Amino acid sequence: MIQILMSVFRVKNNLVRIVGLHLFFLLFAQSSFSQTSDEKKVMIDGEKAFSENNFTLAKDIYSQAVKLDEKNRNFWYNLAASELALGERENACEHFYKAYLLNDGEALNAIKENCPNFRNGSIMAVNDVDEKPKFIYKDKEYLLCEKGALSSKYVDYMAKELRNSKVLGKKAIGRKVYVLIGISKADSLNIEVLKVTGNQEDVSVVKDEVIAVFKNAASYISAKNKGVNVDLWEKWAIPLSF
Q: For the chain, how long is the longest CA-to-CA vector?
């Protein structure tokens, strides 16, 4: 049996945030990810520079930090916060967006608060668009989401397709798989497998098969506003239990 629980994705972490110049700045001292000695030095130096209102130095430090680890959402967030403090709003908004793409929920709040009409309104909230995203399954068209959540039809159909996968029937039994999806303005599904529990043997096989099922079982139609395709801020988390 495959169980699917739905929720709009929200990132939670135990990072300390302090208020300064009407923006939130991340402190890394309590972060739980593994760090190299170079990253630890960046954290200490960046925190010190920002707390002393030396935003130019903080920006320089975090510009180097994202080169050390471009997948570290906290580095991108702090770079954006430093740029915002310097009045470099356009760069700050783009770098908050980098953090958001790495699943930082607070970065989305920062964009909404500080970046009006971001990218000329080409990214919108699902409740603000004229036409909601849709999916096509077995030649029939359905709404992908209802009241901000994934539609029950979509969840049921994907569960059916996952159950029918022979690969998952062999390799995924007893595992939990955490999936994150979104719909791009290119009429395509963005999907990321965040975690696969259990023995790490065959994890890549399970990930590839889950992604293939979601992408191949249905086709997708982007949200539209005033007749133009738009990207959505929303991402949906789908925990799967096999």
A: 60
At 68 the pLDDT is 86
- All residues at 6 or more sequence positions from 106 whose CB lies less than 8 Å from its CB, including other chains: 11, 17, 24, 77, 99
Smallest Cα–Cα separation from 75: which of 61, 94, 86, 57? 61
Alpha helices (H) along 10-88: 37-51, 55-68, 73-85
Structural tokens at position 52: 């002393």
Q: Can you name the residues that pair with 149 across neighbouring β-strands? A: 146
Distance of CA 131 to the CA centre of its chain: 22
Can you list the domains of the chain with their CATH numbers?
9-116 (1.25.40.10), 126-241 (no CATH)
Q: What is the mean pLDDT of each run of 10 residues along the chain (242 residues)?
A: 36 30 37 58 87 94 92 93 95 95 90 89 90 97 93 95 95 95 96 93 95 97 96 93 93
143 close to 134: Cβ distance less than 8 angstroms: yes
- How many residues comprise the chain? 242
Q: List 204's β-bridge partners, or say none.
A: none
Q: What does pTM read for this prediction?
A: 0.72
CB 217 within 8 A of CB 158: yes
